[in-house]
Amino acid sequence: MSKNVLKAKLDIIFKKLFSEIFDSVRYVKLETTDDILIKSIRILQYANNCVYILDPAQKTIFSFDANTGKYLWKIQNAGQGPGEYLFPMDFDIDEKNNRIYVFCRVQKVQEYDLSGNFIQEHNLQINGYSFAYDKDVMYFYCGNNPQWLDNQWKNYRLLIYDKKDNYLIEKLPYENNPQIGGVHTYGSGDKAFYHYKDKVHFFSPYSNLIYSLKGDEMKVDYRFDFGEFDFPENTDRSLYSKEELDEKNNAHGLHLCWENDQYLSANTFMKEIFYHVLYIKKEKTAHVGDFYNDMDYRSIDLVQATNDWALGYLSASSCFKENSYTESYYKGKTSPLIKKLRTEITEDDNPVLFFYYFKK
To answer: What is the pLDDT of residues 30-64, one digit of tens each?
Structure first.
């Protein structure tokens, strides 16, 4: 067990301001044409000065220049033949070897170069939700979906495949919930992995643990301690339905995690409310509360971070419209940056990237 037990204090008055963490923000408008129009975003990832976006509605991965927003290429190979796919769920980037790996649920993993050219496919019929790749090893988060392995059904939340030596390792066994079956995956729409310091890190919505993965080795790096709001020790939260979890006061649904040398960030649900969890490494303190965007007064989920910046995005329409949450939380405020942006885009344009640069 990790020594890094992060005692996360639930403090209703805790409000960490963006301006306390970041010193500036830059937006990038993604190029929009009739042929380059994003309908939805499941995964957005930065690598090699580019952003890659999985649009599940179109079964397409788009690539844009992260500095200018210029469209570069797309992968759009829906079908059942060689080099084609049915259900793209996730992807990951191997920057060193100029590769993008696209995980296609219950079908295969497609391998392309970073110009969008098809290389090969790996026929792994894994029923999963999230995917990561690192040094010839593929990681699959399967939630509570049983897998057909060795001519039998098996229940493992994490599968690790070594493509070089062609072997599969099973991790995190579980029992099915007899009432809701084996397909309950709380928070399955979010990525369950992030990269930090030459390792893949994995987190499950069913626990307060964050693991580091190196090859087929797995160890706990962090454990969030939510005190009185923790589930009792050894409780399998997957035995509850999503509705039952939401009704409880206990912390659950860990998602949207990222880490750099200054911070470890995550989101969770507690007392039927969405909370942000921020661990400040220098202070060795973890707080649960509000992460208030006082720089542009928009609710932006930060999906990835380096030591220099954190990356989020907004749909173009969200830059114009005030939703009920924005109106109540930010009291209808509009920043000069958003006002300027509104003169440069329309509500029908592609999403806008926001890079928030950390204070040093």
So the answer is: 999 999 999 999 999 999 999 999 999 999 999 99
Residue 278 in tokens: 């921020």
- Identify the structural domains of the chain with CATH numbers, from first to last: 5-358 (2.120.10.30)
Which residues 6+ apart lie within 8 Å of 230 measured at CB? 208, 250, 251
Closest CA to 47 of 91, 104, 108, 82: 91
Please state, in angstroms and rounded to a whole number, the distance separating the CA atoms of residues 360 and 357: 9
pLDDT at 329 over 90: no
The burial of 264, by beta-carbon neighbours within 10 Å (0-12 exposed, 13-18 middle, 19 or more buried), is given as buried
Expressed in angstroms, the distance from the first to the final Cα of the chain is 32
To which H or E segment does residue 337 belong?
helix 336-342
pLDDT of the residue at 13: 47
DSSP-derived secondary structure letter, 349: S
At 224 the pLDDT is 87
Length reported for the chain: 360
A 10 A CB-CB count for 339 gives: 11
Query: For residue range 213-257, what is the model confidence (pLDDT) as tens digits?
Result: 999 999 999 988 888 777 766 666 666 666 776 676 777 778 889
Helices (H), 281-330: 324-330
| DSSP track, 222-281 | EEEE-GGGSPPTT--GGGS-HHHHHHSSS-EEEEEEEE-SSEEEEEEEETTEEEEEEEET
Contact 277, 2 (CB under 8 A): no
How many whole angstroms separate alpha carbon 81 and alpha carbon 77?
9
More confident residue, 144 or 92: 92
Give the bridge partners for 219, in sequence order: 212
Residue type, 86: L
Q: CA 222 → CA 5, 6, 10, 159, 355, distances in Å?
A: 6, 7, 18, 20, 27
